[in-house]
Backbone:
């Protein structure tokens, strides 16, 4: 066994990368297997390596505990087998809280225990156009927004003409599904790192049903699906801000059954040494039967839902004790499609409806006549009226108890969203032995108005009879 000492210092939840030289002949993506065992005390993790082109093989590893980690490789290729070394994992830098995990069934937190609430948005193909200026506009827009999660696709849609894709080849006629394009992934990884610096999670959509026989990615053989997933996980799992979304609108795919999706999600679970968050996203076909994917299945970490009615959040919480993220609730904009032309006020209303019921809601824009086209498709600039109001909601939710639903049931904190109703008063049940201050929140004008006097026990709170108001009650 050859010993190679590594003096690298890698922060906790950062990335250690081992680059090795090996064979480039034949098809290294398919023919060479590479894996490493990383050990800290009695803990072992085994990420897979990948071929990065030009005779270079890499293994990436995300250490989750400070201390000396040792590693040794195993490979079907003698040149890559038995290479050993070590590195020092040091304390995380400011802003590095680790991957996001589920907390207390319905909520999220970073691995270091810091609270995390997803305020998401969608930019499906913002990294696919080869337009650096547009991508920089997207990052600048995100930096000035309340959004801390972005849904984004790895695969192109049917009529796109991207300069490069995940597989070798650039058009349907020359795609080689037995090889990958390292340049595509290097670009994607740079953008994932950009999101990480902004404190934004990259919710990576691995499959989608919008191929229509063009690229053939929606109808690959099971072995091709797993070959693709294995490579993606080997390259990207060491990024702490990655989530896995197995498919967007999975029920629109005519070639895969629920059993197929179950198998693929479990394959991701098996291949990912860090157990990033995993879910799958439904389309509107499921509305007709009022059913979603069975999110009680053990390989799913959270519910990723498409539905326009956030009031159903209460039902979804009862159906599956996992966090609810309504990743698509329609889009603010002026698209001719029914899902892409709600008003900013309607978007903000749906956010408040979902959050007040214990779920999380994601934003999107589909203005089709603006300089940078539709935000949900390619990013760029945001033009809608909802984002700043969502930022206002985020500040309010960050001030709330971590389990604001339980606090409401206990009578110690209440956030009551009144929606498009305009009542003259509201009865509230509060603790008898404590005083509460009440505040009236105007969700559109972003004002918080104290109400007098303080309240105690069962109380009648008088209201102005206006729609889109919320009532917040907190212990004095």
Residues:
């Amino acid at each position: 066994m050859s010993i190679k000492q590594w003096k690298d210092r890698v922060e906790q939840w950062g990335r250690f990368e081992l680059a090795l030289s090996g064979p480039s002949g034949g098809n290294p993506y398919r023919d060479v297997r590479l894996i490493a065992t990383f050990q800290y005390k009695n803990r072992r993790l085994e990420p897979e390596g990948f071929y990065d082109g030009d005779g270079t093989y890499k293994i990436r590893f995300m250490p989750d505990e400070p201390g000396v980690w040792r590693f040794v490789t195993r490979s079907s290729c003698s040149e890559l087998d038995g290479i050993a070394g070590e590195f020092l994992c040091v304390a995380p830098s400011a802003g590095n809280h680790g991957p996001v995990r589920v907390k207390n069934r319905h909520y999220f937190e970073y691995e270091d225990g810091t609270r995390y609430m997803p305020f998401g948005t969608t930019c499906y193909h913002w990294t696919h156009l080869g337009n650096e200026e547009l991508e920089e506009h997207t990052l600048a827009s995100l930096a000035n927004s309340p959004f801390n999660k972005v849904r984004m696709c790895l695969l192109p849609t049917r009529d796109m003409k991207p300069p490069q894709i995940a597989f070798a080849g650039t058009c349907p006629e020359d795609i080689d599904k037995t090889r990958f394009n390292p340049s595509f992934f290097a670009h994607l990884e740079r953008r994932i790192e950009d999101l990480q610096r902004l404190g934004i999670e990259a919710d990576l959509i691995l499959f989608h049903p919008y191929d229509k026989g063009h690229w053939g990615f929606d109808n690959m053989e099971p072995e091709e699906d797993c070959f693709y997933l294995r490579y993606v996980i080997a390259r990207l799992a060491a990024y702490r801000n990655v989530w896995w979304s197995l498919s967007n609108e999975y029920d629109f795919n005519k070639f895969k059954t629920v059993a197929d999706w179950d198998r693929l999600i479990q394959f991701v679970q098996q291949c990912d040494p860090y157990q990033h968050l995993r879910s799958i996203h439904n389309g509107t076909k499921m509305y007709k039967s009022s059913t979603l994917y069975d999110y009680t299945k053990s390989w799913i970490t959270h519910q990723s839902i498409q539905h326009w009615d956030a009031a159903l959040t209460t039902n979804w919480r009862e159906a599956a004790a996992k966090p609810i993220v309504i990743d698509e609730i329609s889009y603010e904009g002026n698209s001719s499609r029914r899902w892409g032309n709600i008003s900013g006020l309607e978007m903000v209303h749906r956010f408040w409806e979902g959050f007040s019921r214990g779920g999380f809601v994601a934003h999107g824009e589909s203005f089709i006549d603006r300089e940078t086209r539709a935000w949900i498709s390619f990013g760029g600039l945001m033009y809608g009226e909802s984002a700043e109001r969502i930022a206002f909601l985020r500040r309010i939710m960050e001030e709330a108890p971590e389990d604001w639903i339980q606090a409401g049931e206990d009578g110690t904190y209440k956030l009551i969203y009144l929606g498009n109703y305009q009542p003259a008063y509201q009865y509230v049940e509060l603790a008898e032995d404590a005083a509460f201050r009440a505040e009236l929140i105007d969700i559109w004008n972003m004002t918080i108005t104290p109400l007098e006097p303080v309240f105690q026990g069962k109380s009648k709170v008088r209201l102005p009879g206006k729609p889109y108001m919320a009532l917040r009650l907190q212990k004095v």
Summary: DSSP finds ten helices and 29 strands in the chain. The first strand starts at residue 9 and ends at 11. The CA atoms of residues 41 and 385 lie 52 Å apart.
